[in-house]
């Protein structure tokens, strides 16, 4: 009912939602950012992905509980407004949009790097400019077009990763590539190259900044609630698949990756997947994998524009964003938000032109702050919702959070710990500063513009009621 009331169309089927969830878990953070995490933690990065994945699963269950209970456009932005107050909803909604812009900048940057594997002579910013226009145009079509694109892109990524895992085990079993690299392949690489935790606990902790970035965007499952067919059945199935995806697509993939090649030589000069197979002498596999990581980046950019657009649409309906963001095209798409997001991603063109070598690490760390802030707010909103409900209402929840209240509280503590990680290490301190300034600006904006307008509207409504 909510979707029809707002003009959005429920065009996303169970197939679309399921593969959007898969696609959100397999993106730039795995194909490109994993190289940085491996350099920080060594093989112990597997522990970081397991721990971070468990915390993210609790975020998804908290979001799922609220989205199944009340599936609306704008999702957790509206929930925060309801249970934590209008200012919390305003900050959460705009920070999520900010997160999608920053993650989108990382994704378009990664796309330019991947294209450089084939066309090193072409400037990276040219590829970034082209992909922004293409994806922006696709997002102006019906939501079903978006869902279909995500389905096929995600299917390609899933198939490629499964093939890579099977191929990796084959390489280890038959020793393919050992003669060309001068190194022995096998799981012994996980502990013979300086130990399982070569950089100590400090290296493991430092890797969390990149690891949590890798999971960023997975909360888009909740944003689809306003356009999903039968969200009460579709959303729980998609969310419950998160643990298996983390084990398969992150832990098992990186386990294979570090087994077939020493972790010290997994650099950040392009995707580590492409780099490894190229170094193993399997040039055709490197080409195929580059196609896969390019499609992954395109899929991620597509999801970034979609997620931010729907959140801004929800904010506009609450009076927390310009009314223009609530305008729908004849296809039921909030077209203005798509245009604004595409324009914001054009900033990636400028960044890749000015600082092509350092742009990814900077963007990734800022995105980590925004991502973890959004997750923390989702967890706090779910706690507030539970506390506002009676025992009878809680008993009627169709998708309750497991191990309440201990698991959500542990996840909240972990998110606070990640902020401490960002502030402790010099490479990520700038991200924490940028994030804090962003939150402060949002608080100021709310108090100067949103709150006075809301108060005036309330007074006008009260006067008309008296008359």
From TrEMBL:
Residues 16-451 form the Amino acid permease/ SLC12A domain. Keywords: Amino-acid transport, Cell membrane, Membrane, Transmembrane, Transmembrane helix, Transport. It is found in: Cell membrane. Coiled coil: none annotated. The keyword RNA-binding does not apply. It is a multi-pass membrane protein. It holds the Pfam family AA_permease. InterPro entries: AA-permease/SLC12A_dom, Amino_acid_permease_CS. This is Amino acid permease. One of its GO terms (cellular component) is plasma membrane. One of its GO terms (biological process) is transmembrane transport. The chain crosses the membrane at residues 17-35, 41-60, 125-143, 155-176, 196-221, 242-261, 281-301, 333-355, 361-383, 403-425, 431-449.
